[in-house]
Amino acid sequence: MLSKNVETFMGCDWEPAEADTILFGAPFDSTTSYRPGTRFGSSAIRHESFGLEDYSPYQDKDLSQVKTADIGDLELCIGDTARVLDQIEECAAEILAAGKRPFMLGGEHLVTLGAFRAAVKRYPDLHVLHFDAHADLREDYLGMPLSHACVLRRCWELAGDGKIFQFGIRSGDRAEFAWGKDHVTTRKFDFEGLEETLDRLKGKPVYFTLDLDVMDPSVFPGTGTPEPGGVSFDALRRAVTLVCSRADVKACDVNELSPHYDPSGISTMAAGKLVREMLLALGK
After folding, report:
1. Taking 90 as the threshold, does the pLDDT of residue 32 lie above it?
2. At residue 29, what are phi and psi to the nearest 5 degrees?
3. Percent of the chain clearing pLDDT 70 (strictly above)
4. Which residue from 241, 237, 234, 211 is spatially nearest to 223, judged by alpha carbons?
């Protein structure tokens, strides 16, 4: 039978109207401050996912058991950062209005702000779980407030104090950490305290953002801002599964894969495997 060639993340070929989660890509990296290339991350994850199984021995589930539709990458107005964020917000808002969960594949970390804007408008008490090597709490980066280095500061402006919980953080300037002490909850270096945080967030709406450079570059070199001293793949797998199975995740994203910095493809496969585990855990 002849059919159109539309590539989706493996197993995510439900019709959008029937799905609970809508996967989409945000291929944007115009504010990257070190090595560019994350605009290719979402398509790489999608393409390489077919090297994985849709069954997870960790959770004893497969993707046929969760209703996910992959609508592909957005066609973004590269060069106009504000417009890009508006486009992402519009897409996420449409998904939320249909009673479904947006799951965004970046892209640099700034893309989170677009989806978060949509989610916090729908859920004013929205809390943030943030896994990352970097605090991303700067007021601006070289005079630019719309930067991947400032994305959590922009989210804080919408959410307010006591709503952002960071894990794995091991990089930032002194001013970021000093400011963060009064406004966000930061766990440096690892995921200690995650279970207690999830207990605290029980019954509250959550936005979950995963910057893949939280992993150590020895196991995940395919990123634009590698930061030695990160967590292992398995520690991250356990943590994302815990979040997605226990928290009331209304929207989420995975970002900062820059695939061409890892010619082996291992980083892309790690990203795809994490997306699989998250989707399975979300499909409670």
Report:
1. no
2. -150, 35
3. 98
4. 211
The CA distance from 3 to 36, in Å, is 35
pLDDT of residue 251: 98
My answer on whether omega of the bond before 229 falls inside 30° of 0, hence cis, is: no
Q: Are strands 55-56 and 61-62 parallel, antiparallel or unpaired?
A: antiparallel
Number of domains in the chain: 1
Radius of gyration of the chain (CA): 17
Domain that holds residue 24: 16-282
CA of 253: how far to CAs of 88, 182, 183, 196, 261, in Å? 12, 26, 22, 22, 21
Residue 3 lies in a domain: no
In-domain check, residue 11: no
On average, the pLDDT of the chain sits at: 95
Alpha helix (H) residue ranges in the chain: 41-48, 81-97, 111-122, 151-159, 174-183, 194-200, 233-246, 266-282
Q: What is the pLDDT of residues 74-100, one digit of tens each?
A: 999 988 999 999 999 999 999 999 999
227 and 213 Cβ atoms separated by less than 8 Å: yes
Say which amino acid occupies 223. T
The answer to the question of residue 4 being in a domain is no
Instruction: Taking residues 124-141, report their average pLDDT.
Output: 96
Domain containing 35 — which CATH number?
Answer: 3.40.800.10
Are 187 and 204 in contact, with CB atoms under 8 Å apart? no
**What is the total residue count of the chain?**
284
DSSP codes joined into one string, 231-244: B-HHHHHHHHHHHH
What are the beta bridge partners of residue 231?
A: 215
Look at residue 59 and tell me if it is in a domain.
yes
Residue 191 near residue 167, CB atoms below 8 Å: yes
